[in-house]
Protein backbone atom coordinates (compact mmCIF):
# COMPACT_ATOMS: atom_id res chain seq x y z
CA UNK A 1 0.00 0.00 0.00
CA UNK A 2 1.56 3.26 -1.12
CA UNK A 3 0.96 6.71 0.34
CA UNK A 4 -0.25 7.91 -3.06
CA UNK A 5 -2.96 5.23 -3.14
CA UNK A 6 -4.43 6.47 0.16
CA UNK A 7 -4.54 10.21 -0.49
CA UNK A 8 -6.30 12.49 -2.93
CA UNK A 9 -6.08 16.26 -3.28
CA UNK A 10 -9.21 16.75 -1.15
CA UNK A 11 -7.62 15.00 1.84
CA UNK A 12 -4.42 17.06 2.18
CA UNK A 13 -4.50 20.27 4.19
CA UNK A 14 -1.79 22.87 4.74
CA UNK A 15 -1.58 25.49 7.51
CA UNK A 16 -4.60 24.06 9.36
CA UNK A 17 -5.59 25.62 12.66
CA UNK A 18 -5.78 22.95 15.33
CA UNK A 19 -5.93 24.00 18.95
CA UNK A 20 -5.71 20.54 20.51
CA UNK A 21 -5.40 16.83 19.84
CA UNK A 22 -9.20 16.53 20.09
CA UNK A 23 -9.68 19.35 17.57
CA UNK A 24 -7.25 17.74 15.10
CA UNK A 25 -8.91 14.33 15.40
CA UNK A 26 -12.35 15.91 14.93
CA UNK A 27 -11.19 17.61 11.72
CA UNK A 28 -9.64 14.38 10.46
CA UNK A 29 -12.84 12.45 11.27
CA UNK A 30 -14.99 14.96 9.40
CA UNK A 31 -12.78 14.83 6.29
CA UNK A 32 -12.56 11.03 6.31
CA UNK A 33 -16.28 10.72 7.04
CA UNK A 34 -17.07 12.69 3.89
CA UNK A 35 -14.66 10.59 1.82
CA UNK A 36 -16.02 7.31 3.15
CA UNK A 37 -19.66 8.40 3.40
CA UNK A 38 -19.75 7.40 7.08
CA UNK A 39 -20.74 9.27 10.22
CA UNK A 40 -17.65 11.27 11.33
CA UNK A 41 -18.57 10.64 14.98
CA UNK A 42 -17.96 6.91 14.49
CA UNK A 43 -14.49 7.61 13.12
CA UNK A 44 -13.77 10.12 15.89
CA UNK A 45 -14.83 7.65 18.58
CA UNK A 46 -12.57 4.99 17.03
CA UNK A 47 -9.62 7.40 16.88
CA UNK A 48 -10.13 8.41 20.52
CA UNK A 49 -10.39 4.75 21.57
CA UNK A 50 -7.11 4.04 19.73
CA UNK A 51 -5.40 6.98 21.46
CA UNK A 52 -6.48 5.59 24.85
CA UNK A 53 -4.48 2.44 24.08
CA UNK A 54 -1.41 4.59 23.48
CA UNK A 55 -0.54 7.82 21.74
CA UNK A 56 -0.01 7.68 18.00
CA UNK A 57 2.48 10.54 18.32
CA UNK A 58 5.62 8.91 16.92
CA UNK A 59 8.03 11.74 17.75
CA UNK A 60 9.66 14.61 15.88
CA UNK A 61 6.32 16.46 15.75
CA UNK A 62 4.57 13.66 13.85
CA UNK A 63 1.43 11.70 14.68
CA UNK A 64 0.00 8.81 12.70
CA UNK A 65 -3.50 8.22 14.05
CA UNK A 66 -4.82 4.99 12.64
CA UNK A 67 -7.86 2.77 12.98
CA UNK A 68 -9.46 -0.16 11.29
CA UNK A 69 -12.76 0.42 9.50
CA UNK A 70 -15.43 -1.89 8.13
CA UNK A 71 -14.13 -4.24 5.44
CA UNK A 72 -16.70 -2.93 2.95
CA UNK A 73 -14.99 0.49 2.93
CA UNK A 74 -11.86 1.46 0.97
CA UNK A 75 -8.61 2.34 2.71
CA UNK A 76 -8.11 6.09 2.93
CA UNK A 77 -5.96 8.70 4.61
CA UNK A 78 -6.03 12.34 5.67
CA UNK A 79 -2.92 14.53 5.93
CA UNK A 80 -2.93 17.70 8.02
CA UNK A 81 -0.08 20.15 8.48
CA UNK A 82 -0.99 22.28 11.50
CA UNK A 83 -0.13 25.97 11.55
CA UNK A 84 1.42 25.44 15.00
CA UNK A 85 2.29 22.52 17.23
CA UNK A 86 -0.34 20.93 19.48
CA UNK A 87 0.00 18.91 22.66
CA UNK A 88 -0.42 15.28 21.62
CA UNK A 89 1.08 13.14 24.38
CA UNK A 90 3.87 12.03 22.04
CA UNK A 91 6.41 9.68 23.53
CA UNK A 92 9.18 12.28 23.07
CA UNK A 93 7.09 15.08 24.63
CA UNK A 94 7.26 17.26 21.50
CA UNK A 95 4.24 19.08 20.11
CA UNK A 96 2.76 17.68 16.90
CA UNK A 97 2.28 19.66 13.69
CA UNK A 98 2.11 16.84 11.12
CA UNK A 99 -0.74 14.31 11.26
CA UNK A 100 -1.16 11.48 8.80
CA UNK A 101 -4.35 9.60 9.66
CA UNK A 102 -4.98 6.19 8.13
CA UNK A 103 -8.27 4.29 7.92
CA UNK A 104 -7.84 0.71 6.72
CA UNK A 105 -10.41 -2.07 6.26
CA UNK A 106 -10.25 -4.78 8.91
CA UNK A 107 -9.57 -7.50 6.35
CA UNK A 108 -6.38 -5.77 5.14
CA UNK A 109 -4.35 -5.84 8.37
CA UNK A 110 -1.07 -6.91 6.73
CA UNK A 111 -1.22 -4.02 4.29
CA UNK A 112 -2.23 -1.79 7.20
CA UNK A 113 0.95 -2.64 9.11
CA UNK A 114 3.10 -2.27 6.00
CA UNK A 115 1.55 1.14 5.28
CA UNK A 116 2.25 2.34 8.82
CA UNK A 117 5.88 1.28 8.55
CA UNK A 118 6.31 2.93 5.13
CA UNK A 119 4.67 6.16 6.21
CA UNK A 120 6.64 6.35 9.47
CA UNK A 121 9.90 5.84 7.62
CA UNK A 122 9.14 8.55 5.05
CA UNK A 123 7.82 11.08 7.54
CA UNK A 124 10.82 10.66 9.84
CA UNK A 125 13.20 11.48 6.97
CA UNK A 126 14.46 14.91 8.06
CA UNK A 127 14.84 16.54 4.61
CA UNK A 128 11.38 15.32 3.55
CA UNK A 129 9.84 16.42 6.86
CA UNK A 130 11.38 19.87 6.41
CA UNK A 131 9.80 20.10 2.94
CA UNK A 132 6.41 19.13 4.35
CA UNK A 133 6.66 21.75 7.07
CA UNK A 134 7.66 24.43 4.57
CA UNK A 135 4.84 23.69 2.11
CA UNK A 136 2.48 26.66 2.06
CA UNK A 137 -0.49 25.27 0.15
CA UNK A 138 -2.62 22.16 -0.06
CA UNK A 139 -1.38 21.66 -3.63
CA UNK A 140 2.30 21.87 -2.66
CA UNK A 141 1.78 19.37 0.15
CA UNK A 142 -0.12 17.00 -2.12
CA UNK A 143 2.63 17.11 -4.76
CA UNK A 144 5.28 16.32 -2.14
CA UNK A 145 3.31 13.40 -0.79
CA UNK A 146 2.58 12.01 -4.27
CA UNK A 147 6.25 12.19 -5.24
CA UNK A 148 7.37 10.15 -2.22
Tell me the major beta sheet.
6 strands, mixed
What sequence of helices (H) and strands (E) makes up the elements?
Answer: HEHHEEEEEHHH
Treating each run of at least 4 consecutive H or I residues as one helix, how many helices?
6
Q: How does the helix and strand content classify structurally? A: alpha/beta
Radius of gyration: 14 Å
Q: Overall mean pLDDT score?
A: 92
Strand content: 15-25%
Dominant shape: globular
Beta-strand segment tally = 6
The parts where pLDDT drops under 50 for at least 5 residues are none
Percent of residues in helices comes to: 40-55%
Note the gap between the termini: 13 Å
In short:
The protein is built from 6 helices and 6 strands. It has 148 residues and is of the alpha/beta class.
Commentary on this structure:
With 148 residues, this protein is α/β, with parallel strands linked by helices. The chain has six helices and six strands. Strands 1, 2, 3, 4, 5 and 6 form a six-stranded mixed sheet that branches.
Structure keywords:
148 residues, alpha/beta, six-stranded mixed beta sheet, 6 helices, 6 strands, 46% helix, globular
Write the layout of secondary structure elements.
Layout: H1 3-6, E1 12-16, H2 21-36, H3 40-53, E2 57-59, E3 62-63, E4 66-69, E5 76-86, E6 96-105, H4 109-123, H5 126-134, H6 138-147
Parallel strand pairs: 1-5, 3-6, 4-6
Antiparallel strand pairs: 2-3, 5-6
